[in-house]
Known about the structure:
Blueprint: E1 8-15, E2 19-23, E3 28-31, E4 34-36, E5 39-41, H1 46-54, E6 60-66, E7 72-76, E8 80-84, E9 93-96, E10 102-105, E11 111-114, E12 127-128, E13 137-143, E14 147-150, E15 154-156, E16 173-178, E17 187-191, E18 196-199
Parallel strand pairs: 12-15
Antiparallel strand pairs: 1-2, 1-6, 1-13, 2-3, 3-9, 4-5, 4-8, 6-7, 7-8, 9-10, 10-11, 13-14, 14-15, 16-17, 17-18
Amino acid sequence: MKLAVGQQRLSRILLDFDLTIEFDSGATIAFSEVTVDDLTVDEDNQFEGLRAFAALHGLVCEDAEYDESGVLRLTFEGRHTVVATPRDEVESWEYSDADGSIVLCGPEGSVESWPAPAHPKAEAPTVEGIPSIGATVVRLSTGDDPAVEFSDGTKLLFDLPLDAGYLVLRESVTSSSESDGSTPGDWVVELSSGHVIFYRPRTR
């Protein structure tokens, strides 16, 4: 059975609790465990998975299909492959179409689907803004429109170096202010890991 992402470009990669890829149509696939080419990614090495998917950014998905046992296979140009197999106790993957319809592989390969809702709920948008003290980094994204998103609904619009991801994701803000040094108006955000983000706002 096919997923409607064939011949679509991989536009963005996101990491929160799961690793998610997004296509130009807005459709997404979230993985709890996945093999990207020869690299198997789960909860223990998600940042490696983020880097592996980042290498596929901009490539077209040539085929995307799943079978009755819940095995999902995607093929990208350049012969890159992405395979997700069922897990014993948790969901392995979840496909969300831009219209809100969902297909997922539950524990032990149980494939379920739901049609698009008649009245989809609009998600509250995140906005560029300086995060409040105590806010937590809840999502990183790379590719088109990269961002660092916080639990208070703010985000910083930049492509975080992937090697720094483990110092940022799920860390809380301990200090946030506007710089009064050599670049006044820039934002300085310090996290509980000790990592400091120097950021120049785009919407000013």
